């Protein structure tokens, strides 16, 4: 069974710690995600938001929170792991040394190989389907080829917005699928 990896975006999760935690609670309680990655590249108070979200996850008994790029912070707030962006492969060993589940953002076979050689637990591979501002999609055949060659620890990312997309990436051998927009329907009751 494919796992669901939700990635936050302030457009849907709000711009205060309270809204972030409220929306994340809705997502977690709905049972729609197995992993939750807190990503907000422009938030100057990222640490405070991460602390609040980690506390909310702990209160809900949700153990698979990842922080974006912040390994030391992930360790200090008790997060499950860290998701490193594509320019941060040099931090994989550091994250693993902190005992974190480490996901790396890969965009090529070389990225995947390097990350797995350095000890990454999983890699997102993207974009699979058309996604705004992310370049040409890799497609399902390419994903299938990469999962056959690199193993099952690939998380399909990019343009996954429907249950059909989820089935397709599962059939291509992905360990999980990651998305922002796929999870938006689970958040609709919260007004951001």
Architecture overview:
With 192 residues, this protein is α/β, with parallel strands linked by helices. The protein has a single domain, classed as TIM Barrel (Alpha-Beta Barrel). It has helices at residues 10-13, 17-29, 46-60, 71-77, 92-97, 109-117, 140-150, 163-171; strands spanning 3-7, 35-38, 65-68, 81-84, 101-106, 122-125, 154-157, 176-179. Strands 1-2-3-4-5-6-7-8 form an eight-stranded parallel barrel, surrounded by five helices. The longest helix has 15 residues, at 46-60.
Percent in helix:
25-40%
Low-confidence stretches: none
- Architecture (CATH level 2) name: Alpha-Beta Barrel
Distance between the termini: 32 Å
- Across the major sheet, the strand order is 1-2-3-4-5-6-7-8
Strand content: 15-25%
The CATH class is Alpha Beta
Derived structural class: alpha/beta
What is the averaged pLDDT score? 94
Count of DSSP E strands? 8
Q: How many helices?
A: 8
Shape: globular
Oligomer: single chain
- Please name the CATH topology: TIM Barrel
* Series of secondary-structure elements, N-terminal to C-terminal: EHHEHEHEHEHEHEHE
Total domains? 1
**Main sheet attributes: strand count, strand direction, barrel closure:** 8 strands, parallel, barrel
What labels would you give this structure?
single chain, about 190 residues, alpha/beta, TIM Barrel, eight-stranded parallel β-barrel, 8 helices, globular
How would you sum up this structure in a few lines?
The chain is of the alpha/beta class and 192 residues long. The protein has a single domain (3-187), classed as Aldolase class I (TIM Barrel), CATH 3.20.20. Helices cover 39% and strands 18% of the residues.
